[in-house]
Amino acid sequence: MAKINTNYRKLQAGYLFPEIARRTAKFQAENPEADIIRLGIGDTTLPLTESVTSGMKAFIDKLSDKNTYSGYGAEQGSQELREALANHYQKYGVDIETSEIFVSDGAKTDSSNIQSIFADDSVIAVQDPVYPVYVDSAVIGGLAGDYADDSYDRLVYMECNEDNGFFPELPKEKVDIIYLCSPNNPTGAVATREQLKTFVDYAAANKAVIIFDAAYAAFIKDSSLPRSIYEIEGAKTCAIEINSFSKWAGFTGVRLGWTIVPKALITENSEAGELNQVWNRRQSTMFNGASNIAQAGGVAVLSGQGQAESQELIDYYMNNAAVIKQGLVEAGYRVYGGDNAPYVWLRLPDGKTSWDFFDELLQKANIVGTPGSGFGNGGEGYFRLSAFGDAERTKEAIERIKNRLKV
Ligand code: PGU
User: Hey, which of 185, 241, 368, 383 would you mutate to test ligand 1's pocket, going by the most ligand atoms within 8 Å of its Cβ?
Assistant: First the structure.
């Protein structure tokens, strides 16, 4: 007799973004004349750059010819892309071997799947608020325990709030896996070298592993801030890094990311090299490699011209972030993030819940944003606006907020 995985019943709600889409569609159906501006999901809106489309088209030409056609590629990704990525890390003074890089179809899948290479009694620590994928994946995999009193009893929540600059204190207890996301989704905070060093030291001392989600690394403008956790001494023994072409180069629909599992990484019961082999085994068994067309696009992003063009995309979005931040300050809100991250995180006036504000913003200004509580209890009373929209529409949205939702 088949039985379902009852862990799914422990999930608290539908996945956040489909829920927002559902509420927005309902509002639009009831108000067909409303001109809705979407600053909710962090989804890119600018087209792929010239170097990326030519790189992908050239690859499609190869696929169209019997002599140059290729089928399944290496599960770990093409050697060309892995080499280009290894070279990219050299810019930050970080030496990564190609065999430590695993190309994937994006950071979301990797940040979830990576949990399967750790013991099923692992204690996971997450920032609160947090990208919900880490928590929900732990729930589905049976690592989160039961939900009671607004939290899962086997997870350790590391509070990120105005008082600690949205970077957590070290866990008081011994934990095994620590998710850190910097630049942070949703708060837009970026960890300094000193802040990351405290976590690397903790992880090394406790033989814990940090899962470092750097999906927004390309948005860091301040050169004193680390773009990779491997810029921190000792991190290769205790950190896995996950990254993506999604936000960097507009690949949210193309799908391409990568994960670094250093050979030096160790755990309480494994020697250097074993985790790298185990992730390789997992990917070879359960993943057939990222699309070869997408990988050709990734190689193009990493070319000189490709990087310069991607930087233009980022500058465009970061200009939106500045417009959002400035406008919200003028409207009387306390705002965070937006300087080295494509998200602006605003504190709502006392007593207003995140979903109240979601409805108010939609009804009064026809703007879609993301309620902070969708990222966990620590996000209640906050709201996220995404800088990935069209520049003119973003300006229009901010004018509406200034006129209709002033604090
Ligand atoms: N990691 C973080 C921290 C993210 O915020 C996102 C996307 C991803 C990974 C996903 O990267 P991919 O490489 O494209 O898989 N967060 C967006 C989109 C929502 C979602 O469900 O991923 C957001 O609005 O938070």
Answer: 185
Which of 244, 255, 345, 386 best tests ligand 1's pocket when mutated (most atoms within 8 Å of CB)?
Answer: 244
- CA distance linking residue 139 with residue 272, whole number of Å: 29
Say whether pTM exceeds 0.90.
yes
Q: Where in the chain is the domain with CATH 3.90.1150.10?
A: 12-47+306-404
What class does CATH assign to 52-303?
alpha beta
β-pairing, 151-152 vs 367-368, is: unpaired
**Intervals of CATH 3.40.640.10 along the chain:** 52-303
Pocket of ligand 1, beta carbon within 6 A: 17, 41-42, 106-108, 111, 131, 181, 185, 213, 215, 244, 246, 252, 257
Q: How confident is the model over 272-292, as a mean pLDDT?
A: 98
Q: Which two tokens stand for residue 360?
A: 């108010």
CB within 8 A of 174, min separation 6: which ones?
A: 123, 206, 208
Pocket test for ligand 1, best of 102, 105, 133 (most atoms within 8 A of CB): 133
Summarize pLDDT for 298-332 with one digit per residue, the tens: 999 999 999 999 999 999 999 999 999 999 999 99
Domain 12-47+306-404 in CATH: superfamily?
Aspartate Aminotransferase, domain 1 (3.90.1150.10)
CA of 62 to the centre of ligand 1 (A): 31
